[in-house]
Every structure is written in C-alpha cells, then in structure tokens.
Design brief:
The protein has 3 domains: about 100 residues, Methylthiotransferase, N-terminal domain (Rossmann fold); about 240 residues, pyruvate-formate lyase- activating enzyme (Alpha-Beta Horseshoe), CATH 3.80.30.20; about 60 residues, OB fold (Dihydrolipoamide Acetyltransferase, E2P). It has 12 helices and 16 strands. Strands 12-13-14-16-15 form a 5-stranded mixed beta barrel. Strands 1-2-3 form a 3-stranded parallel beta sheet, with helices on one face. A hairpin with a 2-residue loop joins strand 15 and strand 16. Helix 11 packs parallel to helix 12. It is globular and about 60 Å long. The two termini are about 40 Å apart.
C-alpha cells in the first residue's frame, strides 16, 4: 500500500537501494528478537547509504515512535502502521520536519488503493480481511500495536479479489490477526459468509486460510471446504499450550481435550487436512508438569507442521508483571525438545504424500538446473517445506506432479504424465 500510494504521486519503486533516494524499512515490533532485527537492519542501511533518506515504518514505529525518534537521530523519518497512505505526507512534506510517528486513521477505512506491486511469489497474493485483535491473550502485544479488531466489508474484499484474479493470481491467502473473529466487530462471526461469497466467484483458484484462533473456530467452514475444493484443507491453528493452568493464564478458554476434538472433527470431515500450529514455551508459571502435558498433546495431535518459540516479556501486556518467570535456559531446552519430537511426526506426515499426484504452484526456477521450486496445498509460503520439481517451469503456473520422495522437510516430484 505504501508503494502504491507513492507511485500514485509520481515516485518510482527501485529494485535496489543503490538506485533509490529513499529507503523504507517495514519493521516488526511483536517480540524482542524482531525489534532488535528491525533496528539493526535500519541502522545498517543508513551506515551503508549515509547520503540517502532512511525511514522506519510499520509496527515497531507504531509502538515506540516517539522513543525511536528521540534515540535514533541518524534516521530521517518514522511512520506507524495505521495509515500506510501517510507515507506520502511524510516524504513530500519534508522528512526532517516529521520525525515522530504519525498515528493517522485506520487504513481500512481510507479509499482503497489497488496494489501496484505484489511482494509475494508469482501467482500468489495475501488478502488482509481484518486488522487488529480483540482476543487479548495476555502475552500478546498485537492489540497495543494494531488496536481492536476492525473487519473489512465483504464487498470490499470481493472487489480486491476480483482485481487480483484478473491479474492472474492463482492463490489467495486470507490473513488477519484472527480469521475466526472476522466480523465480530459488527456483531457476528462472518468468515463463513465471506467464504460463501468468494465461492460464488467463477474460475480456478486456491484460497488458503491462515491463523484461526482455536477458541474462535467456526465449524461451518468445514462444510464449505468439503463442497468447494478451491478452499484448501490447510489449517493454521495456534494452540500455544495444553496445560489448563497455562491456557488460563494466557487468557485462553479452550482445553487440550476440546482442541483434540476439534482436530478429530477437521480430519473426519476433511481426510486430507493439513494442520500447522505453534507452541509458546517458558510462559510464566510453566512447570515441568505443564510441559509434560504439552508433550502429550503434541504426541496426540500429530501436526504436519509445528513451530515453537520462547516467551518474550512485552511491556504493556498483562503477562509482563506475572511472577514465577521461567529462565531462558529452561524455556529454550523445552523449545528444542518440542522441535526434536516434531521431526519424526512431520516426516511421517510427509512420507504419506509420496506416490500422490498433487497440484503445485510453481514459485521459481532453480538457476542453472532443469528444476523448479513450488508449493502444494500442504505448504504455506515461507514457513513450511517446498516441492522440488525435476523440470524447468514458469513461475506462477500450476502443474500436476507426482511426489517421488521426501528430502528432509521438502518433497521431490516429477511432472505427472
């Protein structure tokens, strides 16, 4: 959206920092590691290109704009995440005169700009359906950064999708801080309504749903997905934990038993379903007994993909002041054990794909090889494995392949006859 807003005013997007006058770093402020990386990346750019204007944008500057402006005098401008269009005001109004973040309005309610450039791989596009979150998990800084839930209208999303399909996009990836909450700010969950509306559109395309809070999972979508195979049976369900004490401390209402029942229902209704989840290790008060309950849940859940991360103590969140903190060493040991135990579970799930014929969305050719890299329905961009196809294929196209073997977390395939 920032690129589109600037291009509308006559600016040109440059492929390299060397060719640009202004460098914009879109930052993350979610956890400590992301904050550090954002600051280090921005300062490194300014060091490498001292003659250019460098702007920090996004979540970190939304959360800490005033502090960053005071501390990082070498950076030329700061802008938050609530109004990407305001980048034009910052750039054209004189960067030096606008050092602090600009709160702005919610970009969801601004006149929609059509994205002139998609930053994903060819053939795929993210479709943000809502901004912000009202779940209030006690460890999470997202409400501090992005505010309460604000859902787009179904019609505006459909307009965006029609434009993307007309541009040749084949995979629509629905994103929000919690897709299951879509529409709750208007009085009711509307994800099924949105999916039915998208399902009424003609054409061949994939729809991938990312990040549904398990406490908000709308069972109705399973029937929609079973009737329309364009909705991929891929589920991103961040369970985070299984111990009752820890789930309550996190502000979650579910239980290990209820979550296992949800997984059973998904797999019963959609036998080819793939489930990704995340676990948070080292939350305040997490005992060895709590960790063993989580290991038991992992064993029973049999996730295809699982990411584990350690607790980051974030100021302003309810968990910040919680006692009985877990040491970094213990949290990391538990993280590594979870990751180690997941390896054979993922391997077993991927081995079951060998011999199957599936559609793959080609993302890129392998330089100097008669080989391409793509993703099947079981792979979300960036976080899961890939499919290596033994043929040079055009990025952005679909092709049917037969899976021949597993190689680590990736699959190898040949074009189906």
């Amino acid at each position: 959206m920032m690129i589109a807003a600037l291009q509308r005013e006559g600016w040109t997007h440059s492929e390299t920092p060397e060719a640009a006058e202004i460098l914009i770093v879109n930052t993350c402020g979610f956890i400590a590691a992301a904050k550090t990386e954002s600051i280090e990346t921005t300062l490194a750019l300014k060091t490498s290109f001292p003659e250019k204007k460098v702007i920090m944008a996004g979540c970190l500057t939304e959360r800490y704009g005033q502090e960053l402006a005071a501390e990082l005098s070498e950076i030329d401008g700061f802008i938050g995440n609530k109004d990407p269009h305001a980048i034009v005001d910052l750039v054209e109004g004189g960067i030096g005169a606008a050092r602090a973040k600009r709160p702005g309005g919610r970009s969801l309610h601004r006149q929609r700009l059509e994205r002139t450039r998609l930053l994903s791989f060819p053939g795929s596009a993210y479709v943000k359906v809502a901004e912000g979150c009202s779940n209030r998990c006690t460890y999470c800084a997202i409400p501090l950064i992005r505010g309460d839930l604000a859902s787009k209208s179904v019609e505006s999303i459909l307009d965006e999708i029609r434009g993307l399909l007309a541009r040749g996009v084949r995979e629509l990836i629905f994103i929000a801080q919690d897709l299951g909450s879509f529409g709750l700010d208007r009085g009711g969950a509307e994800l099924p309504q949105l999916m039915k509306a998208v399902g009424s559109l003609d054409g061949l395309f994939w729809v991938r749903l990312l990040y549904i809070h398990p406490d908000r999972f709308p069972r109705e979508i399973l029937e929609i997905m079973s009737r329309d195979p364009r909705f991929l049976p891929y589920f991103d369900l961040p369970f985070q934990h299984a111990a009752p004490k820890i789930l309550r401390a996190m502000g979650r209402t579910g239980s290990a038993e209820a979550n296992l029942e949800l997984l059973d229902e998904i797999r019963r209704r959609l036998p080819s379903a793939v489930v990704r989840s995340t676990f948070l290790l080292g939350f305040p008060g997490e005992s060895e007994e709590d960790f063993q309950l989580l290991l038991d849940f992992q064993r029973k859940a049999r996730f295809t993909w699982l990411g584990a991360f350690t607790y980051s103590r974030e100021e302003g969140t309810p968990a910040y002041g919680m006692k009985d903190r877990v040491t970094k060493a213990i949290a990391e040991r538990r993280q590594h054990e979870i990751e180690g135990r997941q390896v054979p579970i993922t391997a077993e799930a991927l081995d079951a794909q060998v011999g199957r014929t599936v559609e793959v969305l080609v993302e890129e050719k392998v330089e100097g090889e008669d080989m391409s890299i793509g993703r099947a329905y079981l792979h979300a961009p960036d976080v899961d494995g890939l499919v290596v196809v033994r043929q040079s294929l055009a990025p952005g196209q679909w092709t049917r392949v037969q899976i021949t073997r597993r190689n680590g977390v990736d699959l190898e395939a040949e074009v189906a006859p």
